[in-house]
Each structure stands twice: as structure tokens, then as C-alpha cells.
Design brief:
257 residues; alpha/beta; Oxidized Rhodanese, domain 1; four-stranded parallel sheet; 9 helices; globular
């Protein structure tokens, strides 16, 4: 079990929350420190880490290749979905997100603790898949009408309004918007598979899931849309990890508003 709680505006919140109370046996992973690599100013706010470093970090937390990994957060699953996607990225398919997250666990009255678990390092290895998109492949795919891009950010940020995280507002020309929070029902859990399938199918039109590239601001909430499509049975889409924060770092790339 992995605790992925985080706040983009207060990056220490997750660690403090974990120290106060967490699911018994859960290990804490930090979005910036464990689920991201070094930033260059041109590769986005949450670039993917070196896969060997990522695997070594999980091994140090007790992960092994034969274990089921379950991730949770307190934000509707979108930080947890990043870990879910990254595990699959390195070939580990036994990965899941706790539906409803921390809130659902507390509502169910299940065990929590402030005590850190005793961790025995494991052996965990993987090989990164080559299906993560980069800016060039996204630009070429859109130009040649080979792919569709789904942007998981809020509608106002997609339109280029109220941008507070990145220096440029707008979206990748040709992208369509699917706010990740629309994947959730009122109780904070994912909508039923049939409902998600209907909604995403309407968005995809004639595109096959394998032609779809997901992005957001920095490759985090896009994973939530990837997970929602997986739940819906629409498998095979890819992630553009650099997302808008990488795209807008190059003034030569076009911007739509």
C-alpha cells in the first residue's frame, strides 16, 4: 500500500498528513521526490524519473515484483493514478488505485495509525515501455491526424484563463478537454464503467483508444483519465508526461486559447 497524498500548493502536506495518520502498513511516496525526475526548465514540472531510480526507490520501500501495489490519496485518486501509471510504465501490471481513497477508508472505519511500518527492502525491477509520448510525436501526430489529444485540466485553464501554475495559458492546438474530476461520482469514487465508456466514447469519436494521447499540466491528472478509460475497457492510450508545462516552455510551439 502506498500513500500518495499531496498538494501542489503545499508540497509538504502529504508527508505531514502521513505522519499524523495513514493506512496501517502504507509507505509514503512523494510526487516531487519519488514520482518525478530532475527538472531542466524545458521538460515540465513533473518529468518522469529514470526508471531504474524509480524501481530502486520502490524496492527500498519493500516493493517486490510479485506484490500487488495499491495507491491512495485524498484528492479523488489523481496523485495515486500517477503511481498506478508509472508502475505499469515499468511493466508491473499488479497495480491498483483505492477507489474513494483516504476518505472512503475512514468512512469504512478501517485501521489507521501514526506509526511508520517496519520496512524490509525488496527486489523490484522493471523496464520502461516506449509508449510515453514526447512533444515532437504529439505535434507530428496532430499534424498528420494520426492521434487525438485529451487534456485533463479544468476548462478555464484549458481555455487559457486563470493559469496559476504555468507561465503561459492555453492548450495544445487540436486537443480536447476532459476535466479529470468528471470521472468521479458525487461520493468521490469512479463512475460506473458503462458510464465512463459512454462519455469517453463520445469524446473519442472515430479514434481508437490506442490513437489517444493524454496530457494535463504536468503529467499527473492525465493519469486519472487513463485510469478512467482503463476502467471503461478502453485500453491502449498513452501519456504525454511533459504535458502543457513542457509544451509551453518552448515559445516556438503553437498555443490555442
Amino acid at each position: 500500500m502506498f500513500d500518495c497524498r499531496h498538494d501542489l500548493a503545499d508540497t509538504g502536506l502529504g508527508r505531514r498528513a502521513y505522519a499524523q495518520s495513514h493506512i496501517s502498513g502504507a509507505r509514503f511516496v512523494h510526487l516531487d521526490e519519488d514520482l518525478s525526475g530532475p527538472k531542466t526548465g524545458r521538460n515540465g514540472r513533473h518529468p518522469l524519473p529514470d526508471p531504474l531510480i524509480f524501481c530502486a526507490r520502490l524496492a527500498a520501500l519493500g516493493m517486490t515484483n510479485d506484490r500487488q501495489a495499491i495507491a491512495y490519496d485524498a484528492s479523488g485518486g489523481y496523485y495515486a493514478a500517477r503511481l498506478w501509471w508509472m508502475l505499469r510504465w515499468v511493466g508491473h501490471t499488479r497495480a491498483a488505485v483505492l477507489d474513494g481513497g483516504w476518505g472512503a477508508w475512514l468512512t469504512a472505519g478501517l485501521g489507521v495509525t501514526a506509526q511508520s511500518p517496519a520496512i524490509k527492502p525488496g527486489t523490484f525491477s522493471g523496464t520502461a515501455r516506449d509508449d510515453a509520448a514526447d512533444a515532437r510525436s504529439v505535434a507530428n501526430g496532430l499534424e498528420q491526424s494520426r492521434i487525438g489529444v485529451i487534456d485533463a485540466r479544468s476548462p478555464d485553464r484549458f481555455r487559457g484563463e486563470n493559469e496559476t501554475l504555468d507561465p503561459v495559458g492555453g492548450h495544445i492546438p487540436g486537443a480536447v478537454n476532459r476535466f479529470f474530476k468528471h470521472n468521479l461520482a458525487a461520493d468521490g469514487r469512479f463512475k460506473p464503467a458503462a458510464e465512463l465508456r459512454q462519455e469517453f466514447s463520445a469524446l473519442l469519436g472515430s479514434l481508437a483508444p490506442a490513437q489517444v494521447v493524454h496530457q494535463c499540466g504536468s503529467g499527473v491528472t492525465a493519469c486519472h483519465n487513463l485510469l478512467a478509460m482503463e476502467i471503461a475497457g478502453l485500453t491502449g492510450s498513452s501519456l504525454y508526461p511533459g504535458s502543457w508545462s513542457e509544451w509551453c516552455s518552448d515559445p516556438q510551439r503553437p498555443v490555442a486559447r
